[in-house]
Design goal:
single chain, ABC transporter permease, two-stranded antiparallel sheet, 13 helices, mainly alpha
């Protein structure tokens, strides 16, 4: 007599969009319930007060709100930059370095060319330099992958360290001994190379740029020939070759684009929001962007909400520490629980579990 397994897992057919939304919404609600239980057990605090404090930390004042939206914009921008590569199944883990090298390019222009040309021309030069530097940092792993099938994960990861050390080197060059004062708030007196503010709000321009980039990326991925080629290469490189798509060219082009967009975010960091350069200016968002892109299923619109969720949880962590005397690790626990449920619900969207009927008998 053959024994049957207690349950069977099988691939689902494509679910309607409203079912997908219902499953994901249910996962978030269940995650909040579990977080509430954990909060009560570990701290004895009212979980609603904890949630309210997290929102207060992110949106409690106008200044906090602008900072939150700026953080969302930067994280979203980096996530958009890496998405074409990920959709192509090219695992670009080098966004951190690609943004940093864009920061270095724009900072170099600000320090070396500031005051030597009109500001509008300096901004043009900075933009071109940042895009080119980021594109180069993306082109190199793409070229080696296309020509010699190198491991793109290791290649892009190692280039992060090169970019970090280059930035560290030039920070020292510009700080000591004769360059003292050039790094800090760059060109604070002349504001040479600073992007203009809109309505006296320095974050608004960066937010608008990323908003436009979101729309363009959605169109590029879903309605352009390049986006179609990226999708086909991601599904099967052999099929793409049979269809006449030049796979090597698509890999190199897509990685150059991904790096260039990271370079653009580097420009926004140095020229619009921070006006400085440090080795930690990207603050790990190049790695967080990997999670944002994957969780959103490479959909730029959904990335907005994923980025907002992660930034709000991060921004609320310090407020929790102040209000309840809890360390930041507690916020990380809540974040981990929520992400676990969000990621876990993808299993139930893609697969179904069928339990064995006890009433059936084997012949």
């Amino acid at each position: 007599m053959n024994k049957k397994s207690l349950f069977h897992i099988s691939k689902r057919d494509t679910l309607p969009w409203y079912t997908n939304v219902a499953i994901r919404g249910g996962a978030i609600i269940l995650a909040l319930v579990v977080c509430a239980l954990v909060t009560t057990i570990l701290t004895g605090e009212n979980p609603l007060s904890i949630y309210g404090t997290i929102l207060k930390g992110a949106f409690g004042t106008a200044r906090k709100s602008w900072t939150t939206w700026e953080n969302v914009a930067i994280l979203l921008g980096i996530s958009l930059a890496v998405t074409p590569a990920f959709k192509m199944r090219f695992w670009n883990i080098g966004a951190e370095g690609q943004v940093l090298i864009g920061c270095l390019a724009s900072t170099t222009c600000m320090i070396c060319l500031g005051g030597k040309m009109p500001n509008w021309l300096l901004l043009v030069v900075m933009t071109v330099a940042s895009l080119a530097a980021g594109a180069l940092w993306g082109f190199l792993p793409g070229f080696f992958k296309a020509k010699w099938n190198t491991n793109e994960t290791l290649f892009t990861l190692m280039m992060n360290y090169i970019a970090t050390q280059l930035v560290a080197y030039f920070i020292i060059i510009w700080e000591v001994p004769k360059g003292s004062g050039k790094i800090g708030i760059i060109n604070q007196d002349t504001q040479a190379g600073w992007l203009p503010t809109i309505g006296n709000q320095k974050y608004l321009l960066a937010i608008l740029v990323v908003a436009i980039l979101t729309g363009l990326m959605y169109i590029y991925l879903n309605y352009s020939k390049h986006g179609y080629e990226i999708a086909v290469v991601g599904e099967s490189r052999r099929t793409a070759s049979y269809a006449g798509i030049k796979v090597d060219r698509v890999i190199i082009r897509t990685m150059a684009l991904s790096g260039a967009l990271c370079g653009l975010i580097g420009l926004l960091l140095t020229s619009s929001t921070d006006h400085t350069m440090t080795t930690t200016i990207v603050d790990g968002r190049g790695f967080t962007a990997v999670m944002v892109s994957w969780m959103a299923k490479f959909n730029p619109v959904i990335m907005i909400f994923v980025s907002l969720l992660l930034v709000v949880l991060s921004r609320g962590a310090s407020e929790i520490s102040t209000a309840f005397g809890l360390n930041r690790s507690f916020s990380d626990i809540l974040t981990g629980i929520i992400l676990f449920f969000i990621i876990g619900c993808e299993f139930f969207i893609n697969y179904k579990v069928q339990f064995r009927s006890s009433g059936k008998k084997e012949a």
